[in-house]
Design goal:
106 residues, 4CMD/NDH-1_regulator, 0% strand, 2 domains, mainly alpha, AhpD-like
């Protein structure tokens, strides 16, 4: 398997934490994200909100990209992050907004 064929988790941690990679690929993305109870768009909005609230910047960038791929618009994410500023803290929202700006300007 080439590096391009590996999942993101396999690329990042495949040699170091193969069981965590398996759980990420098979359970998190294979079952939880695939569950029809929420649309991928809604799952992305929930995930981005949680990552903003918890100040998880390292994970946020990839999930902002995924949110855009899953149908959320830049404007919707701007509104969601602005709303979150009042509940999760200004620094969390500002950091998220800066990441969104960088991603949408790429």
């Amino acid at each position: 398997m080439t590096n391009d064929e590996k999942t993101r988790a396999q690329q990042l941690l495949g040699d170091t934490a193969p069981e965590l990679v398996r759980l990420t690929d098979d359970v998190l993305f294979g079952e939880v994200w695939a569950n029809p109870g929420l649309s991928p768009r809604d799952r992305s909005l929930v995930t981005v909100s949680a990552l903003v609230a918890l100040y998880r910047g390292e994970q946020l960038a990839s999930h902002l990209r995924k949110a855009l791929e899953n149908g959320l618009s830049k404007d919707e994410l701007v509104h969601a992050i602005t709303h979150l500023a009042f509940y999760t803290g200004w620094p969390n929202a500002m950091t998220a907004m800066i990441q969104l700006k960088k991603i949408t300007e790429e």
